[in-house]
Design a protein that fits this description.
The chain is α+β, with helices and mostly antiparallel strands. It has helices at about 1-20, 25-30, 60-70, 200-210, 235-245, 335-340, 345-360; strands spanning about 25, 30, 40-45, 90-95, 105-115, 125-130, 135-145, 150-155, 160, 165-175, 190-195, 220, 225-230, 250, 255-260, 265-270, 275, 280-295, 310-325, 365, 365-370.
């Protein structure tokens, strides 16, 4: 076993020293299948608030939750009694359970008010279970809240709010109680999934693994997944995964793509974008309406004449800034930018020009409007 470990470490060192400067590590291009985080959610009560809790007359679930908690401690309120509380708030709790989290480890939690509490500042979260999507409890949360928001009000009704006082965090506020199984230690293979699907990158990644570890070790399944044969022993599998994820690969070039944000007018043009010959005309129709007031006065010897004001409208229609430029074959990114800037186009005009080029079949790129 020690001999195998030494070989793996030597191969890892050679891979790190021999990788080209323009390449990227596999860990930056892909991730291990099944190694992922999981979301947890829960419900609880925050107590100890300084009169900024839920208004129980409008949030009956807060009273119901408090009654259920008191019953667990043997305290039963008389029928028909509704306590008027101002220092309790019903909250939703959520956290992220990282991959390979073990029982006893702690994770951060975020607590958010779901009632009408004005602020959670100074509150304490009581013991609350956090459940996963399968309904099982994976962690227990409890602790004092850290709230960055502030809410203050005066007797005349004026108030000021800084940040969000109804949301707080508890660093290391939850303790993991259950382990999430993952397929990393099972089977004869581990699978790397590319962050962005690409057949060229998947093929190069499999070839790089085979060149570093040995022929036939890796096989690309599709444009995303690469299956790699791995040792069964857990300690050797960890060292093997470390070796593979640090191998450097020259990824394939991305597809020609133009991304347009229709809300902000932002346009991002990829480096491989080219267009066929086309003539682009850019101009704006300008309509100008001018109102002139004409004053009409009666004659010098008129007896019943009165001064009158009349409106005279002048309408002018024309085209302002009409330009035409020619785009030749195999135009580069720089040529496109220079040509569009030459006509003084605004972001909205650039979007219209690119859409028209795409519809005309001259734009050799994928046009994405978000």
């Amino acid at each position: 076993m020690e001999t195998v470990m030494r070989k793996l470490l030597c191969i890892l060192a050679l891979a790190l020293l021999s990788g080209p400067a323009w390449s990227e590590r596999i860990k930056d291009l892909a991730h291990l299948a099944g190694v992922r985080s999981n979301q947890l959610v829960g419900y609880g009560l925050v107590v100890g608030l300084n009169g900024s809790g839920d208004q129980t007359s409008q949030t009956p679930f807060t009273i119901q939750s408090l009654n259920n908690m008191l019953q667990q401690f043997g305290i039963v309120l008389p029928p028909g009694v509704k306590p008027q509380l101002k220092n309790v708030a019903a909250v939703a709790i959520h956290a992220t359970l990282p991959a390979f989290a073990k029982v006893g480890q702690t994770i951060d939690v975020t607590v958010s008010s779901i009632g009408n509490a004005k602020s959670l500042r100074g509150g304490t979260l009581l013991l609350s279970p956090l459940k996963g999507a399968d309904g099982r409890v994976y962690a227990m949360a409890q602790g004092d809240l850290l709230v960055s928001g502030l809410n203050a009000s005066g007797s005349d009704g004026s108030s000021i709010t800084v940040n969000i006082p109804s949301v707080g965090t508890i660093p290391n506020g939850a303790t993991v109680e259950r382990v999430v199984n993952n397929p990393f230690s099972n089977g004869d293979f581990i699978t790397f999934n590319l962050n962005r699907s690409d057949f060229t990158t998947a093929n190069r990644l499999a070839m790089a693994i085979n060149e570093t570890v040995g022929p036939g070790v890796a096989h690309s399944i599709d444009a995303v997944s690469i299956r790699v044969s791995a040792p069964r022993d857990p300690s050797q599998r960890v060292a093997f995964a470390s070796l593979v994820e640090n191998i450097e690969v020259d990824p394939g070039e991305t597809a020609a793509r133009v991304v347009v944000n229709s809300r902000t007018g932002t346009v991002v043009i990829g480096a491989n974008v080219k267009i066929l010959p086309a003539a682009v005309s850019h101009g704006s129709l300008v309509v100008t309406i001018t109102e002139n007031q004409q004053v009409s006065q009666p004659g010098a010897f008129a007896r019943r004449g009165q001064t009158a004001i009349t409106q005279q409208s002048d309408v002018d229609v024309g085209v302002k800034g009409n330009h035409t430029f020619l785009l030749h074959k195999n135009v580069t990114l720089q040529d496109i930018v220079d040509g569009i800037n030459r006509v003084g186009a605004t972001p909205a005009d650039i979007v219209a020009i690119l859409q028209a080029l795409k519809q005309a079949g001259s734009l050799r790129a994928e046009l994405m409007v978000i």
